[in-house]
Amino acid sequence: MSDFTLSRNSFGRLVLITNDGQQHEGVVAVRAFPIAAPDEGVSLVSTDGHELAWIARLSELPDNEQTLVQDELAQREFVPEVKQLVAVSAFATPSQWRVNTDRGATEFTLRGEEDIRRIGQGELLITDSHGMNYRIPDLFTLDAHSRRLLDRFL
Amino acid sequence: MNLRPALPSLSRFPESFPATWRDGLNTELAPDAVVVAWLEVDLDERLNFSRTCIVLCERELLARRADSAQWEHWPLHDELRLGHFDHAGIGTLELYDLQQRLARWRYTLEQNLAAQRLIKLFESQRLAIATGAPAPIDNNDVCPNCKAPLPPDEDECPICTRVEQTPPSTWTLLRLWRFAKPYQGQLLAGFLLMLGSTAATLVPPYLTIPLMDDILIPFHAGQHIDPAMVGLYLAGLFGAALLSWGLGWAKTYILALASERIAADLRTTTFEHLLQLSLEYFGGKRTGDLMARIGSETDRISVFLSLHLLDFATDVLMIGMTAVILFSINPSLALVTLLPLPLIAWLIHLVRDRLRTGFEKIDRVWGQVTNVLADTIPGIRVVKAFAQESREAKRFRDANQHNLEINDKLNRTWSLFTPTVSLLTEIGLLVVWGFGIWLVSKSQITVGVLTAFLAYIGRFYARLDSMSRIVSVTQKAAAGAKRIFDILDHVSTVPEPTRPIHLENVTGAVELREVGFRYGSRSVIRDLSLQIRPGEMIGLVGHSGSGKSTLVNLICRFYDVTDGSIRIDGVDLRSIPVAEYRRHIGLVLQEPFLFFGSVAENIAYGKPEATREEIVAAARAAHAHEFILRLPQGYDSLVGERGQGLSGGERQRVSIARALLIDPRLLILDEATSAVDTETEKEIQRALDNLVAGRTTIAIAHRLSTLRKADRLVVMDRGLIVEVGGHDDLMAREGHYYRLYQAQQRHAEELLLEGGAL
To answer: Which one of B616, B628, B642 has the shortest CB-CB distance to A114?
Structure first.
């Protein structure tokens, strides 16, 4: 049994009520290991940045609360998956990339090669000039043209 | 009072005692006196170079200047003192008693170690006379080469190594064999292939003889050309070209493979060895130098092995084989062909030598240009704040201009070089043409032989230029090899025990017994004894330079003690394997170092197998959890050199989490809170409180207020423990600690006042 209850109020904000009856509105869910282990360690943080509750594993929550947290996380997280590299403006950075993602076609600016981060075998995380992240789940499954473009930056 | 048995007068001098002083001294000394120590200073009173010998016997001190025949005597007694100080590279040794200075000697610092040894022995002899107890036998280490006393913390003699600053010998390259040995099979195969491919390249010129004599000349004489013969010869030419292509490819590939592996092994071995060396080796500004050694020097050696040495060997082989072939065809023409060769080689070498000095100069000027960059770019905030952009631009322009001038000068010679080589080659060919035509006219050789000769020497004249390069590249590679072997030959001053004792469970009791440590010739810690109970928190207090950090370094075994011993749970540190011992130590430094990687990896640095729960727990205890959650990728955010910027306090809390995770029995906090402001300090202090609980802790802090929780405060001054006790106790004593505390209070009040005035 968890030591808090979660609900969503009419403003669409998450409300957390701890066992001692304290009520916190506008709770934010944060993943501790968004890359290495997204489903382990989710923290519920108050609006002023203090941790209110810790969820070691999302699956431990009751179903309805789990959906609440998942929804909240989905609202915060925006990491489009790159399916294809269409074109890059230059092989020297900064470079404009035109990509197709799972959320549609877009364009972003890569500031430097160091913004492409290798996570695991073939998995890449690209941070654009605004700090937004794009994910390439497996670089080896990209098509030849995309891989050739990408290879120039790795 | 005879301290030592009288020895026969022959052995009253140490072995190394110079003979020039010996003769006169023999009659000066009392018949049973033995020279305990001596020093030859190299400056006189007015700092001219002139030698003076100072001799210490059991009961007196003697000295004589080189230009005087008179020995001066000072009998030792209780009030006689020998002191020294140095300033600007000149040391001064002074002899005085309670009333006045009796003598003064000056020396360059080369003799500093010997002078200190003299003082040390003087003190022990004086004490022996004062107390009547025999003087302790001097067991100072001396260098096996020059008999000079060794500094206690070094394994190589500073005097002998200084002599070794001679240009590195080319023979150093032979030491690379150690790394080449695993690849000897490949190297042999490569050599055989080289032999084969070189031989194959020599076939085509040889075929010109029958082509000329049997086909072309008879054709001019009116005979028919036999297509079958021509086909045969052309096939021979093609075959030889194909063979030399194949063999040459295989040779270059195999040898390049081997040499790249040799260089890789060299690099790894050097780095691994470097990691084993004690902290002392890394002191100062050597980082860039060490990086260059491991990076570019190994690369230079690799290029030398795979490219220059290979080319050179091929060329030598070719010249040798060509000479054999030429002599077998016609000895007299061969002689004429080969005679100008040494001369041309020497001329090329001469020009190259001049070019080399020029290139070295360019290297140095280039260094100046990059220096301007290295100065300006990191200091760009200062440059901009003081609006000095134009000055820096001018500085760069000047350096660049200088670079241009030097280059222009060299280019004059450089542009001359290639035409000169071809001119020399042409002249060589001319000689062969002339002599050859003369021989043909005498019918001593055929036209075919002459064309073959011309084809042969055309080839190796072209190679002379690249061969002349071998001298300088060999020197450079040898210098590189020497710098690498300098690292490899350095023995760690913190050696692994030969018979290690393994500690199962450490309680954290630390005992320092009469610990002494000298850094170079400076005694940093003297005769320090301290017992620390398991779980106790000790605060180390003192002015900077009082030896606090050194003491902590000794406890971590970054250095080894010079005298005495440090024991943990009753076991001497030196008998525990270094890595095993350090696993029990948690270290939090003033400036925490984060490696490039994620926050989680940084926290788990000392325990890579830690689970995520453990990492989060450690971060929580270190009050780092919440700020980590605020980072864009939580625990997966990149930090360190190229990563996310963390503030000083945040970095410190990550490093505290790192120390917490390995759960050490012994915790060392070296000024952990002094780099941050008071507010952050409070937060770190809370994190530290979690860390300290239940562990033996040794904390150094500049702000005395941060040591409130310490069980005992140890006040150090100039390498000695001057006071030990709790805060209240030490305040009541009104000693060193009291004065330090008062000074800080006053300072804090002044700051407050200033703040108020503003």
So the answer is: B642
Compare CB distances from B612 to A30, A37, A50 and report the shortest one's residue. A37
Structural element, H or E, at residue B404 = helix B389-441
Q: Does B634 touch chain A (CB under 8 A)?
A: yes
More reliable by pLDDT, B279 or B259: B259
**Adjacency order of strands within the sheet including A104-110:** A82-88, A95-101, A104-110
| pLDDT (0 to 100) of residue B161 | 45
Query: Does ipTM exceed 0.85?
Result: no
Amino acid at B445: I
Contact B414, B319 (CB under 8 A): no
- Choosing from A60, A76, A92, the residue where a domain stops is A76
Q: Based on the domain organization, do A87 and A129 belong to the same domain?
A: yes
Number of residues in chain A: 154
| A90 and A68 in a common domain | no
Which is nearest to A74 in space by CA: A29, A44, A41, A32? A29
Q: Are A44 and A87 in a shared domain?
A: no
Least confident piece of the model among B63-77, B137-151, B421-435:
B137-151
Give B363's contacts (C-beta < 8 A, 6+ positions apart): none
Read off the pLDDT band of B136 (50, 70, 90). Answer: low
Residues A21 and A45 both lie in one domain:
yes
**Residue B694 in contact with partner chain A when CB distance is under 8 A:** no
**Which of B615, B616, B636 to probe the A interface (max A CBs under 10 A)?**
B636
**Contact call for B613 and A45, based on CB within 8 A:** no
Question: For residue B39, which phi and psi values (nearest 5 degrees)?
Answer: -145, 135
CA B548, B551, B557, B560 torsion-angle sign: positive
Task: Kindly tell me if the per-residue pLDDT of B546 is higher than 60.
Answer: yes
Across the range A29-46, mean pLDDT stands at 85
For residue B103, which phi and psi values (nearest 5 degrees)? -160, 160
Chain A contact for B641 (CB, 8 A cutoff)? no
The verdict on A93 and A68 lying in the same domain is no
pLDDT in tens, B315-340: 888 888 888 988 888 888 888 888 87
Total number of domains in chain A: 2
Domains and CATH numbers, chain B: 9-150 (2.30.29.30), 169-329 (1.20.1560.10), 592-663 (3.40.50.300)
- Residue A30, domain extent: 4-76
Listed residues A27, A55, A76: the one ending a domain: A76
B486: enclosing H helix or E strand: helix B470-489
- Asked if B634 lies within 8 A of A30 by C-beta distance, the reply is yes
Q: What is the pLDDT of residues B220-250, one digit of tens each?
A: 888 888 888 889 999 999 999 999 999 999 9
**Could you give the angle at which helices B309-329 and B331-338 cross, rounded to 10 degrees?**
150
Q: What is the pLDDT of residues B177-204, one digit of tens each?
A: 888 889 989 989 988 998 899 888 888 8
Q: Does the distance separating the beta carbons of A49 and B630 come in below 8 Å? A: yes
Rounded percentage of chain B residues whose pLDDT exceeds 70: 90
Q: Using a CB–CB cutoff of 8 Å, tell me whether B626 touches chain A.
A: yes
